Amino acid sequence: MSHTFHIPVLGTAYSIETPIKVAHLGISSVISIVDDILVERLRKFYSQKVNLNYQPITKKDIAFRSKRITAYLNLVHKMVEAKVESMKQECFEKKGELVKYFELLPEHSALKKMYIKFIAEENSLTKQKLEQELKQNIVQGAIDVNIMSKVDKLNLNKEGEVINSDALESFKGFADSTLNAAVVLSAGMNPKLYNYIENFSDFFPDENNQLRKRIILKVSDFRSALIQAKFLAKKGLWVSEFRVESGLNCGGHAFATDGLLTGPILEEFKQNRNAMLNELFEMYQKALETKNINCNVCPTQKITYQGGIGNHEEDIFLQQFYQLDGTGWGSPFLLVPEATTVDEATLNNLAKATKDDFYISGSSPLGVPFNNFKLSSSEKQRIERIEKGRPGSPCIKKLLVSNTEFTKEPICTASRQYQNLKIKQLQEQGLNQEEYQEQFNIITEKACLCEGLATAAYINNDIVEKNESTAVAICPGPNTAYFNKIYSLNDMVKHIYGKINLLDGVKRSNMYINELHLYIEYIKKDINHSIKNLNDKKIKYYNKFKEQLENGITYYKNIIPQIFNQSEAYKKQMLTELDEAVNKINQIFSILSNTEEKQTKVA
Predict the structure, then answer these.
(1) Are 496 and 456 in contact (CB under 8 A)?
(2) Neighbours of 473 (CB within 10 A)
(3) Distance (Å, rounded) from C-alpha 327 to C-alpha 250?
(4) What is the pLDDT of residues 115-147, one digit of tens each?
(5) In angstroms, rounded to a whole number, what is the distance separating the alpha carbons of residues 310 and 396?
(6) CA 20 to 30 Å from 516, out of 10, 115, 162, 459?
(7) Which residues contact 268 (CB under 8 A, 6 or more apart)?
(8) Cβ(145)–Cβ(181) under 8 Å?
(9) Against a cut of 0.85, is the pTM above it?
(10) Where are any strands of DSSP class E within 291-426?
């Protein structure tokens, strides 16, 4: 990697064009490949833009979904390579993309040091030699892809037979592409998908022990990472990177842990990294032997972190203290038009938003907490539909259909069809007004993400079709609240590397404290929702959650003296905020204890 950071997947539209914008500058990013309709429309748009022949892949084509994804990824690959070659033809005097490539590099990189030497060199022959060497060492950023493993709708033929599933078709689309890159598998383990990977030779080492295509696991804790990696290693499949992500301090879907916080999670990876590597390599070698593949060299295995990082000091501390191989910066890049795809109206709303505009919602049809934005046009549309007595959305793409409560074929819980049926059922239950409204809100909070998360790309590229909704859904992490302007790529990268401070004057707690507050609010909300219906299982869960939070706070108090790049005043403030968090936790759980006591007396 040219850089120590990458741009993670950002919804379906928001990083769909990111490699086209920044890969030639050495910045790695991740494309979501869940939406083949979006992918196909962008392939048409870019083919016409760069004067390439476009042959549509229609739903009549066999395996159209995977073919669309392959074709788009191949196009992106071709465009990025062309940009890199064009950049190499530039001269440094023009101050174009070539100069931008080297100016963006971190100061500690060998290539940046060579560039600085080149700038200062006065001997023309030496300068010419350095210029050639600089251009030869240009490395483009990775064009990686993301698949949410469990978003895996089955697809049937006319006879009702299963012919494929969405996750497998997406994977095949990547596997058949020309990319030398990685697939980021997120949202937990899908054994069917993991077994399917064995069908593609690019995921096995070649004669030089190189992997043309690699696997990255996005995980929220060490145990889950090890279980998934072992499953894959026993098939001769290597995990090239564990991408640890905060359960709540991130964008998109929020896969909360049971109170296990980022610091202790990263500490467990740090302490067990070598043992895990050796254990996995032994399994990996044995599995490869059964496939007649020799591998005597242990492949590299990176560990990176993403979620809620706000400044250079946090970034450097994470990398050095936990011996990480890099970090991910996601949501702040939503405010960088040079890197991501956000429509102008949403971009301006993000820039002026306050902390209260970002919240964990029940909007996702997947039933997983979802980071939502109150000022989005999608949220406005959802509320307007309820007020007009027509809650729910038309279900066009059907990417998230899963519910069979009322129908034989799965439908989406955000669809108008489902919400109408569910509300009718609710009306027959004879609930009082308060109970009815609570259940009504839960039903109608579900929003169409298939359409809303893709719309920004249509608006920005002026490819909105007739009668198509222009309501935009977006899923920024809560950390976005601290970034209150629209930024240039240069400024955001400089901020990451500590050359400038985009948050100068902004009151913001340490990322560990921010995540802790998110978990406290999360469990408070859950307890309030369940307080009337406590059972032994719930009580055990809450007690475990409290214990994990308390262990995390103790861990933070112990490592604060080791934070090497913050002032004593900053560290003292962290300790104060941790003590305040302890008081909040005790207040929340005292309500739980009192309720448990009353129920015991009644029993």
Answers:
(1) no
(2) 28
(3) 13
(4) 999 999 999 999 999 999 999 999 999 999 999
(5) 37
(6) 10
(7) 221, 222
(8) yes
(9) yes
(10) 302-306, 326-328, 358-361, 370-373
